[in-house]
Design goal:
- This protein has 391 residues and is mainly alpha-helical.
- The protein has a single domain, classed as Growth Hormone, Chain: A.
- 82% of the residues lie in helices and 0% in strands.
- The chain is built from 17 helices and no strands.
- It is globular and about 50 Å long.
- The model has no long low-confidence stretch (mean pLDDT 86).
- This is Arabinose efflux permease.
- It is found in: Cell membrane.
- It is a multi-pass membrane protein.
- Keywords: Cell membrane, Membrane, Transmembrane, Transmembrane helix, Transport.
- One of its GO terms (molecular function) is transmembrane transporter activity.
């Protein structure tokens, strides 16, 4: 039991450092725009580029992992550390983009491997718990990492933020080497085309569409969270750091609630929750006219944003374990792949909304994607109703 707790901590730490590195751009958006003399909308496309590269590279890497998965984890973690170190020394915006691309290339595969390790080390009663906590590592990054990184950036400069991320990455690599099983292999892995057969299953392609639209709906708004706090709601920098922390707590609550939903009604609960999220987002322009009502609305989005994660992850893994064992590692990455495709789509859409209609209207763009997630969830539940439950 002690070994399981230590290994679980390391897997959660991996997701934390991945989330810290990915999400910190949102906290230092204004600082990067000032440093490199580009607009906030242009800097916001760093989120789009990162997520798009993440989504494209992850299935390619995960589907070709044929050897020892522990060795793959260590190599990818070292590349991740190098990419963040390169960001520290970026002399211009182009090198900054390149460094973010390097980090993005390996981040999704690291999440996938973490999920694969989780299914091996966790006893069945603890599987939903560990999966929800691996997802929650990203929320903990929002709670502590993004506000801390934002404070460091404001106080010492954004490069010191990435020095912190790089040092934490080195520590994480050391812990991976010391604690995780060294002999984990993916079994029954087929040819790359055999692995991708899983995407022909309606339970999978509907899940993919749900995850993409769900994250797109949130990131139309979330990419521009700091500018909304500073420009639309007129909070000063010190208060913004506190608000980012509170928002992170809301997203952590969201991930933990996601685990509870997975252990109860699962995806059957999601249509009602998506209806609530749709209402919260589409009415956001009205809420943002008042500082405190706007803040409440933003925090409600934080609570709703990750509720689908654990039910959908366990559903996908259940499909793979029962019907597509050759695609298990690929299946474990599906959630993160299409989350980032959704992030890329949502942040790009957010950039268009901000450029053409202003910050106040990002919620309406998010609501449109949420409506598609709602429709897809209803369809998936109908498909699942005709089959044995997989979670």
């Amino acid at each position: 039991m002690k070994e399981f707790k230590i290994q679980s901590f390391v897997l959660i730490l991996i997701s934390f450092i991945l989330g810290f590195s990915e999400f910190i751009i949102i906290g230092i958006l204004d600082d990067l725009a000032k440093e490199f003399s580009v607009s906030v909308a242009t800097t916001g496309y760093l989120v789009t580029i990162f997520a798009l590269v993440y989504a494209v590279s992850t299935p390619i890497i995960t589907s070709t992992l044929k050897n020892n998965l522990y060795h793959a984890m260590v190599v990818l973690a070292l590349i991740f550390t190098f990419g963040n170190a390169l960001t520290i020394f970026a002399p211009n915006y182009t090198i900054l983009v390149i460094s973010r691309i390097i980090v993005a290339i390996v981040s999704g595969s690291l999440v996938s491997l973490s999920m694969t390790f989780a299914t091996v080390i966790a006893p069945m009663p603890k599987r939903a718990w560990l999966v929800s906590w691996i997802f929650s590592g990203f929320s903990v990054a929002s709670v502590f990492g993004v506000p801390l990184g934002t404070w460091i950036s404001t106080t010492l400069g954004w490069r010191f933020t990435f020095i912190t991320i790089t040092l934490l990455s080195i520590i994480t690599v050391f812990l991976i080497i010391k604690t995780l099983p060294h002999n984990l292999m993916q079994e029954k892995q087929g040819h790359i085309l055999q692995q991708f057969v899983i995407f022909k299953d309606p339970r999978i392609y509907l899940s993919v569409f749900i995850q993409t639209c769900s994250l797109a709906g949130v990131y139309v708004f979330y990419t521009y969270l700091r500018p909304i706090f500073s420009k639309t709601l007129s909070f000063n920098p010190g208060v913004i750091t506190l608000l980012l922390t509170i928002f992170g707590v809301m997203s952590l609550i969201s991930n933990q609630a996601s685990g509870r939903i997975a252990n109860n009604k699962g995806l059957l609960s999601m249509p009602l929750l998506y209806i609530i999220e749709f209402i919260v987002l589409i009415t956001m322009p009205l809420w943002l006219q008042n500082t405190w009502l706007g803040t409440v609305d933003i925090m409600l989005v934080g609570i709703l944003m990750y509720l689908v994660n654990s039910p959908l992850q366990l559903h996908i893994m259940g499909v793979a374990e029962n019907d597509y064992p050759q695609s298990l590692v690929l299946a474990s990455s599906i959630n993160s792949i299409f989350s980032n495709l959704g992030i890329s789509l949502g942040s790009a859409a957010g950039g268009l909304v901000v450029s053409n209609f202003g910050l106040n209207n990002v919620g309406i763009g998010g609501a449109a994607f949420t409506a598609f997630a709602l429709i897809s969830t209803v369809m998936l539940n109908k498909v699942n109703a005709a089959r044995e439950p997989l979670y």
